Amino acid sequence: MNYLLKDPEAVLDYSVDWGAEYLSGDLLATSSWSVDPQEAGGVTVEATDFDATTTSVTAAGGVAGRMYRLVNAVALQSGRLDSRSIVLRVEAR
What we know:
Elements: E1 4-6, E2 11-17, E3 28-36, E4 43-50, E5 54-61, E6 67-76, E7 81-90
Parallel strand pairs: 1-7
Antiparallel strand pairs: 2-5, 3-6, 4-5, 6-7
């Protein structure tokens, strides 16, 4: 499993490029982000954004020693649904 490291005090931006040969001319219509697990002091979604082919999220917090999954669920203009995940390991640095 590949994961990204994040300090509990850091507020960082992450993105997913959906356009890299995946969309085949289709475009993103909606995007939402969630965190798993949700827990007190855990990673939180501070802001989100998206354009026709890329989504982004700003994540804050987290408990040192824990792993979290940022899940990006999208709907395409064609009506197709999909999701991608970014796995974070929180470590005090």
